[in-house]
Amino acid sequence: MSTRRAAEQITDRFTDRFTEQVTLREAAAHGAAALILRPWTDEDADVLVRHHADVLLRSWLVTHLHTAPDQAVSRVTREA
Questions:
Q1: Is the pTM of the predicted complex or chain greater than 0.85?
Q2: Does the structure show a pLDDT above 80 at 35?
Q3: In 3D, which of 27, 19, 40 has the Cα closest to residue 51?
Q4: Which residues contact 37 (CB under 8 A, 6 or more apart)?
């Protein structure tokens, strides 16, 4: 196998690890709620817009969604 092909295979495996859909779960502990991290879905768009309206949260965000649910759907689709 050529060095170039071997490098391509390593790159493919590396890329696959970062593009696969993964859901992470952590059980509740020490008074903290359970946590689930999962890929965005279209159903998250309305909640995303609602949370972007929170003044305190907006102070920590680099980008902002204003009121357009289609912006949220675009972001969800792009980041999924």
A1: no
A2: yes
A3: 40
A4: 23, 24, 25
Angle between helices 69-79 and 45-52 (to 10 degrees): 110
d(CA 24, CA 22): 6
Reported as a single tens digit per residue, the pLDDT across 4-20 is: 787 777 776 666 655 66
Name the residue among 64, 46, 47 with its Cα closest to residue 55.
64
DSSP 3-63: HHHHHHHHHHHHHHHHHS---EEE--BTTBPPEEE----GGGHHHHHHHHT-HHHHTT-SS
Answer yes or no: are the C-beta atoms of 72 and 46 closer than 8 Å.
yes
Please give the C-alpha separations between residue 43 and each of 4, 26, 46, in angstroms, as whole numbers.
42, 22, 7
